[in-house]
Structures are given as C-alpha cells and as structure tokens.
Design brief:
This protein is α+β, with helices and mostly antiparallel strands. The model has no long low-confidence stretch (mean pLDDT about 95). Strands 1, 2, 3, 4, 5, 6, 11 and 12 form an eight-stranded mixed beta sheet that branches. A four-stranded antiparallel beta sheet has the order 8-9-7-10, sandwiched between helices. It has ten helices and twelve strands. The chain starts with 5 loop residues before the first strand and ends in a 12-residue tail after the last strand. Helix 9 runs antiparallel to helix 10. It binds L-homoserine. L-homoserine binds next to strand 1, strand 2 and helix 5.
C-alpha cells in the first residue's frame, strides 16, 4: 500500500477518574501513547493492522477495533466513502487503566481527519473518538478520550452539548505510575458498579469531586492528592480487583506522596508528588518498586507529567503540529 496518501498522528495515554471523577475527569500523560498512520486505499472498506514492534497487538475486526470505528466516524462526517488502512503502533497494552483504547481511537481520528484534509467541529470529533472508545469498553465514557484529544486535565459532563472544562498541568505537579503486570478490562470492571445510589451518597460524591476540581484550579498538589484519594463510591465497589492497592498506597504516602489512587479501572496506580522537593522522586520510585515486589507483582514504576498538548500530527520529517496546523515547539511526549 506504499505510495498512497497517508497521515500520521500520535495521541497520549491518560489517567481517568482520579478518585471521585468517575467518568467525569481525566488527564493526558506524557511519555506514553499510540501512533496511527491512516492511508487512503482503493475500495470502500477500512482495514487495520498492528505494527508488530509496538507494545501490544490487538484484534483487527473493523467493527470492534476502536481505531477503525473512530476513523469510520471521521470519514463519514467528512463525506468520504473510499477505503482506509490504519496501522496502529501501540505504546501501551490494553487493559492497563491508562486509556490505551482511547489513545488509539484519538490517534486514528486525528490522522484520518488530517489525511482527508477536513476540519471536524469539536463536537463531531468528540463524537468520533467516544464511538471508538465505546467499541471496546462497552459504554461511551469520555474521560480518557477527551484528555487524549485535548491535553491537560479535562472535566466533563456531556459530549452533546460539549460540556467540558480543560485545565493545564502545572510545573510542580509530578506523577508516578505503578503498572503491575495484570490486565483489568474496563467492560468487566464496570459490571461491579451499583446501578443506583442513595441521594445522600450522590451528594457526598459530588462534593468530593468539587473539592478535587478546586484543587486543580488552585494548582495545589497537596489538595489534589487528598481529594483524589477520597472516592467512596466506585473504588470500594471495585476494590477486590486490586488486592495490591492498599499496600502501594501506604508506601506512597509514607514516602511523601501527596496522594495515590487507581487510574480508571486499573490495574495502574498513580501517585502525585511535589516536584520541587529534592530527592522525593527518587525515594518514591524506590518505595513503590519495593511495594510492588512485596505484593508479589511484576511490573514497572515510571515518572510522568501531565501532557498539555493532546493529540499531535506527525509528518514524514518528524515535524509535529496540533490539529489546528500550528507547530508545536516543545512537545513533552
Ligand atoms: N471511567 C472509566 C471507568 C475509565 O472507571 O470505568 C476506564 O479506564
């Protein structure tokens, strides 16, 4: 298929929920993400392949592949009825809690938009990436796809109308991600949740998320850490999925983290800390690696920051730009 017109995009991995922000809060992270190349092909079908050198290889059925579903929505919105081939290079495996399917969905949608020379409205682009996410997770939640598309922290209520607020990560906010070698599929984890909660619990939950939003607005690492550990609705219902969570959280707090919680439906755990404190990053990294081992788990511990750029378009010369076409000078990806 070489010689056909193509476009390539990269989209970051993301944290979601961050405690009481279930389905309503997510954040893009640097250093991890998926790349998708979209190529025009003869015919009218969308086909998918995975770059074998990526971190994961998944199913290629275009009806259930998140990238194909998102690209199909973009193509339809732009009135394109021709063929497409998507090559997905995964930067992270599925089932990590770090927005793996969302990163593929967003990168595919942005690459397809770029290839077809269109400019979707914000709402149409959001609808496309949410449809891609729904193809794998079973429900149209946007707390991974919106941060992956837009960058930074994103608080959201709905896609139609587009009710969301984007906030940037800031300098002294550091993140450490603990990723045990385990897989939790969001579709299954969602089955553990109650269908209904009493009004008093709903009010309490809303109040905790409001405190968390306030911490983000004030750029207060300690308060962010406090409130991201405060979920009393979703995490207790899923706690059995992460038998190591308490041990890792204790180790993070004892070593000076401001807070620690599960990301999305796990298994990834994220701790936040003050980057300006000398030596804290190193001691946290050592403590969390030891906690992982002591819980009998293999896996990795990595250092991150919030990725404020969102999805990026990559050209053949390695020049990087936003969807708007503006060049990105210092992408921290
Ligand atoms: N909000 C979603 C959930 C995120 O917790 O089910 C999945 O990563």
């Amino acid at each position: 298929m070489t010689g056909n017109r193509s476009a390539t995009a990269w989209a970051p991995a993301s944290l979601s929920n961050l405690g009481p922000g279930f389905d309503a809060l997510g954040a893009a992270i640097d250093g991890l993400g998926d790349t998708v190349r979209a190529e025009e092909t003869p015919g009218e079908t969308i086909t998918v392949s995975f770059d074998p050198e990526g971190a994961w290889v998944g199913p290629v059925d275009p009806k259930s592949n998140t990238a194909a579903v998102a690209a199909g929505h973009v193509a339809a919105s732009l009135g394109y009825g021709g063929g497409l081939h998507l090559t997905i290079r995964k930067g992270l495996a599925a089932g990590t809690g770090l927005g793996s399917s969302a990163a593929s969905s967003v990168a595919a949608a942005v690459a397809t938009e770029q290839l077809l020379g269109g400019a979707l409205s914000q709402e149409d682009m959001m609808a496309a990436v949410v449809a891609g996410e729904a193809a794998t997770s079973g429900q149209a939640h946007a707390d991974n796809v919106l941060p992956s598309l837009l960058g930074g922290f994103v608080l959201m209520r709905s896609i139609h109308p587009a009710d969301h607020v984007r906030m940037e990560g800031w300098d002294d906010l550091g993140l450490i991600i603990v990723l045990p070698k385990a897989e939790v599929m969001t579709r299954e984890a969602r089955k553990a949740l109650p269908d209904m909660v009493p009004l008093s619990r709903a009010v309490d939950h809303a109040a905790r998320l409001a405190m968390l939003a306030g911490a983000l607005q004030r750029r207060d690492v300690r308060s962010l850490g406090r409130w991201m550990m405060s979920d009393d609705l979703v995490i207790p219902a899923r706690h059995h999925l992460w038998p190591y969570l308490d041990e890792v959280t204790d180790a993070a707090l004892e070593s000076g983290a401001a807070g620690c919680t599960i990301s999305g439906s796990g298994p990834a755990i994220v701790a936040c800390y003050d980057r300006t404190k000398a030596g804290l990053r190193e001691s946290l990294q050592a403590a969390l690696s030891a906690a992982l081992r002591s819980a009998g788990l293999e896996g990795g511990v990595s250092i991150h920051r919030i990725h404020n750029h969102g999805a990026l378009i990559l050209d053949d010369e390695g020049v990087v730009s936003w969807r708007t076409g503006d060049p990105v000078l210092l992408p921290n990806r």
